[in-house]
């Protein structure tokens, strides 16, 4: 009832609101919707330099060659592995370092990695883990390896070690701070006192109360982060494997081959990926709203 | 005189104000008794211009003010909770209506100082709202509303959240200020005693319909208002005590 | 004891990138298997101050873009978020706001690049600004949803019935109340622009050389010393601001 009243109260100044909504549509929805339509038209041969009327040929090529599905599968594998590792580590850190996160040295330090963008993280992981990187040099000077050839392939490898590592490293501080914020908001400290009062140990509390609460409350953010990694571009471009491009990289590749016939495929991949992400989003949007 | 004629308001299919008509002469307080959900908040907000009515007219001194925006109506709506501006001091909260009207600084100072004295809040002038008690906050909200002498005060159960003692002190303060400044007001409450104490005229509201009474006696006699029930309760207790004494 | 040593390890891991890049940025040659560079020089840093260098231009360009995107998206986001918060189908509107926000920026860039080509904004600073605005503005709209609570809306109404105009209410009630949120949003939208690479590269056609574009360029040229310096230039300003007040930077979405 009260909410209804609020809504009605704004109707008194209708005019300006309409322009604001139009501006919102123009800046937020129109680029995605318009781009999607244009991309769809291009991939169906309806527009573009080489268009010759409606055709499913480009979609067939993208789907039949398996290049899109392979790349999507690879991206899902990378995103899933990275988010799982990061979540596990962040859960451990936020519970284990509860005190120093609250007011100790870590309360400032943990914010620092948030100043590292994906490009820089890709560069960093490369400089650390490439065959001639810092880790290899330290290993050599400690006589662990006889030469740089013996250092394992950790970047540009098909398992995506480098990409997963870079994204895990970027996600850990963010998720740790997020869990820490939830820990405070949900009054988990008081709950722990209650639980200890009832005779439960620290580990029991963590396993049965803290972890489920943190995961449940953070679920929408974890999903958003998963989608971010799914569309990752900079890191796989820098340290990904040549044979297994992630979706964003694959899409851009199609535009940069200077083969005009590849461009409709690039659009098809972009459209397919966009629809996939929007589908994921709308499935989970109700949950997102509850926690936003 | 504030004159309301056949105000009608519905939210979708739910009628909230059902052809409400009432008149409040200048300088008088109309006490409106009603339980929560009877439509009283909607009535006050409509009068303040915060909600547009579906039909009917609102007149002040014979002229329609339906189209006058809230800020030019000079009808101050007082929310149930004292909504003070949290970032402004007590002094600046009270001065708000004067500052909005570009009153000269000297006048602002003297008016606010005398209002603070009136409300017995002098020593709190520089405090922020979150440092005040509930009763003090309600007093500030009061002072802020009457300092620029608006046409009408619209009070939405202003004392409902206060404890009994503070509440009775606030009722006395309201009566004193209402007389002193000749305030015209609609005072909505669900408390029969408060209505009787504060009103010059009386009305009862239920399910969007408003009944106006000719006199205090008519208000007390109507079983719907619950005055008789209350009287019967106290009478029976008195009776019990006197029989026990014997 | 275990906790202490773990804290030390964690702290060193956090500081490592800063230290590593600082060392590299003053390095000149770094042959295997030496752990530290063989020769050190301040030339890279001096170039930055002595004007007309690519890095200096990149820094200024990134700053202009970041400030422009932050100012526009924070202001527009603040105003429009209210309209959305009060909308009848609020959740549907918000779903739209999530669209560009969850999409990979480079994929978005691919799909809208035709528009930028047609309007002649490809390869121009203004085009990149608009492109980044498409990412940052919906974020701001979502960000400010929590501000328009019942209490704030009632305060606004209270101000109205006390006789204040919409502009007066905005200046003296709404903006002061939203101050800290405005600052956080400003900083976060600044970072969205400051960190952006994919869309900037695609719409800027590589001609709008921001710091992130330069990092990539130096990496491709195998010029790790300049890449490290550019990376530091990206990381240091927000790190310093964080030090000044971490509250401005982080807030769960």
Instruction: Give the CATH superfamily of chain B.
Output: P-loop containing nucleotide triphosphate hydrolases
Oligomer: heterotrimer
* Broad shape of chain B: globular
What is the N-to-C order of secondary-structure elements of chain C (H for helix, E for strand)?
HEEHHHHHHHHHH
Major sheet of chain B: 6 strands, mixed
Q: What is the CATH third-level topology name of chain C?
A: MetI-like fold
Number of domains of chain B: 1
Poorly predicted ranges of chain C: none
The strand line-up of the biggest sheet of chain B is: 6-7-8-3-9-10
**How much strand content do the residues of chain B show?**
15-25%
Q: How would the blueprint of this fold be written?
A:
The complex is a heterotrimer of chains A (292), B (246) and C (253).
Chain A: H1 2-10, H2 14-43, H3 57-64, H4 67-96, H5 98-102, H6 106-109, H7 118-129, H8 134-141, H9 161-185, H10 188-197, H11 202-230, H12 234-239, H13 247-256, H14 262-291
Helix pairs in contact in A: 2-14, 3-14, 4-9, 4-11, 7-9, 9-11, 10-11, 11-14, 13-14
Chain B: E1 2-11, E2 14-24, E3 29-34, H1 40-48, E4 55-60, E5 63-64, H2 70-73, E6 75-78, H3 90-100, H4 105-118, H5 134-146, E7 152-156, H6 164-181, E8 184-189, H7 192-198, E9 201-206, E10 209-212, H8 216-221, H9 227-245
Parallel strand pairs in B: 3-8, 3-9, 6-7, 7-8
Antiparallel strand pairs in B: 1-2, 1-4, 4-5, 9-10
Helix pairs in contact in B: 3-4, 3-5, 5-6
Chain C: H1 2-25, E1 27-29, E2 39-40, H2 43-49, H3 54-85, H4 90-102, H5 105-118, H6 125-143, H7 150-161, H8 166-195, H9 198-204, H10 211-220, H11 224-244
Antiparallel strand pairs in C: 1-2
What does this structure look like?
- The complex is a heterotrimer of chains A (292), B (246) and C (253).
- By secondary structure, chain A is mainly α.
- Chain A has a domain at 92-244: Orthogonal Bundle (MetI-like fold).
- Chain A has 14 helices and no strands.
- Chain B has one domain (2-212): 3-Layer(aba) Sandwich (Rossmann fold).
- Chain B is built from 9 helices and 10 strands.
- In chain B, strand 1 and strand 2 (14-24) form a beta hairpin.
- Chain C has one domain (47-248): MetI-like fold (Orthogonal Bundle), CATH 1.10.3720.10.
- In chain C, 75% of the residues lie in helices and 2% in strands.
- Chain C has a two-stranded antiparallel sheet.
- The two termini of chain C are 36 Å apart.
- The mean pLDDT of chain C is 88.
- Classes of the chains: A mainly alpha (292), B alpha/beta (246), C mainly alpha (253).
- Chains in contact: A-B, A-C, B-C.
């Amino acid at each position: 009832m009260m909410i209804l009243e609020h809504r009605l109260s704004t109707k008194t100044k209708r005019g300006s609101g309409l322009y604001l909504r139009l501006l919102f549509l123009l800046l937020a929805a129109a680029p995605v919707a318009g781009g999607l339509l244009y991309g769809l038209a291009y991939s169906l041969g309806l527009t573009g330099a080489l268009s010759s009327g409606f055709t499913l040929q480009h979609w067939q090529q993208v789907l039949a060659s398996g290049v899109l599905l392979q790349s999507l599968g690879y991206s899902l594998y990378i995103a899933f592995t990275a988010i799982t590792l990061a979540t596990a580590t962040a859960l451990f850190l936020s519970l284990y370092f509860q005190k120093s996160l609250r007011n100790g040295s870590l309360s400032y330090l943990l914010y620092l990695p948030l100043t590292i963008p994906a490009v820089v993280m890709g560069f960093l992981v490369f400089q650390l883990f490439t065959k001639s990187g810092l880790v290899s040099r330290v290993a050599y000077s400690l006589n662990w390896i006889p030469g740089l050839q013996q250092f394992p392939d950790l970047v540009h490898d098909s398992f995506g070690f480098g990409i997963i590592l870079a994204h895990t490293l970027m996600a850990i501080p963010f998720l740790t701070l997020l869990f820490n914020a939830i820990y405070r908001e949900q009054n988990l400290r008081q709950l722990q006192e209650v639980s200890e009062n009832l005779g439960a140990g620290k580990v029991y509390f963590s396993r049965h109360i803290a972890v489920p609460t943190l995961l449940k409350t953070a679920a929408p953010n974890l999903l958003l982060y998963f989608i971010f990694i799914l569309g990752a571009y900079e890191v796989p471009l820098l340290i990904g494997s040549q044979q297994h491009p992630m979706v964003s990289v694959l899409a851009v590749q199609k535009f940069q081959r200077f083969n005009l016939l590849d461009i409709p495929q690039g659009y098809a991949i972009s459209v397919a990926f966009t629809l996939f992400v929007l589908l994921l989003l709308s499935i989970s949007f109700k949950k997102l709203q509850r926690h936003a | 005189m504030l004159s309301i004629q056949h105000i009608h308001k519905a939210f979708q299919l739910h009628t909230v104000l059902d052809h409400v008509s009432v008149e409040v002469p200048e300088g008088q307080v109309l006490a409106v008794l009603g339980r929560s959900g009877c439509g009283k908040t909607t009535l006050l907000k409509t009068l303040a211009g915060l909600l547009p009515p579906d039909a009917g007219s609102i007149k002040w001194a014979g002229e329609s003010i339906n189209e006058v925006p809230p800020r030019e109506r000079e009808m101050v709506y007082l929310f149930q909770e004292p909504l003070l501006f949290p970032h402004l001091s007590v002094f600046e909260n009270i001065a708000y209506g004067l500052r909005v009207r570009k009153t000269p600084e000297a006048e602002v100072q003297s008016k606010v100082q005398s209002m603070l004295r009136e409300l017995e809040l002098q020593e709190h002038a520089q405090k922020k709202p979150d440092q005040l008690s509930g009763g003090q906050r309600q007093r500030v909200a009061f002072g802020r509303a009457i300092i620029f002498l608006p046409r009408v005060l619209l009070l939405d159960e202003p004392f409902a959240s206060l404890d009994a003692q503070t509440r009775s002190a606030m009722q006395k303060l309201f009566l004193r200020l209402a007389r002193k400044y000749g305030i015209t007001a609609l005072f909505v409450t669900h408390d029969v005693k408060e209505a009787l104490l504060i009103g010059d005229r009386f009305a009862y509201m239920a399910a969007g319909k408003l009944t106006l009474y000719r006199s205090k006696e008519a208000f007390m006699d109507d079983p719907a208002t619950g005055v008789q029930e209350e009287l019967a309760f106290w009478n029976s207790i008195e009776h019990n005590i006197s029989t026990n004494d014997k | 004891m275990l906790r202490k040593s773990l804290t030390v390890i964690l702290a060193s891991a956090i500081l490592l990138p800063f230290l590593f890049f600082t060392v590299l940025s003053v390095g000149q040659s770094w042959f295997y298997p030496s752990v530290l560079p063989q020769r050190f020089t301040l030339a890279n840093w001096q170039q930055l101050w002595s004007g007309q260098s690519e890095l200096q231009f990149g820094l200024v360009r990134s700053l202009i873009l970041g400030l422009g995107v932050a100012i526009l998206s924070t202001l527009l986001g603040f105003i429009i978020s209210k309209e959305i918060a009060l909308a009848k189908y609020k959740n549907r509107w918000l779903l739209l706001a999530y669209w560009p926000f969850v999409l990979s920026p480079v994929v978005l860039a691919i799909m809208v690049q035709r528009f930028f080509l047609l309007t002649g904004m490809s390869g121009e600073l203004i085009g990149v600004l608009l492109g980044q605005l498409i990412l940052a503005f919906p974020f701001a709209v979502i960000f400010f949803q929590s501000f328009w609570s019942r209490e704030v809306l009632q305060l606004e109404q209270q101000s109205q019935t006390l006789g204040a105009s919409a502009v007066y209410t905005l200046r003296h009630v709404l903006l002061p109340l939203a101050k800290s949120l405005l600052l956080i949003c400003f900083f976060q939208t600044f970072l969205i622009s400051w960190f952006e690479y994919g869309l900037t590269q695609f719409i800027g056609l590589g001609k709008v050389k921001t710091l992130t574009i330069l990092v990539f360029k130096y990496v491709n040229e195998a010029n790790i010393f300049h890449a490290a310096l550019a990376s530091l230039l990206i990381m240091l300003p927000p790190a310093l601001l964080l030090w000044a007040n971490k509250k401005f930077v982080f807030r769960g979405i």
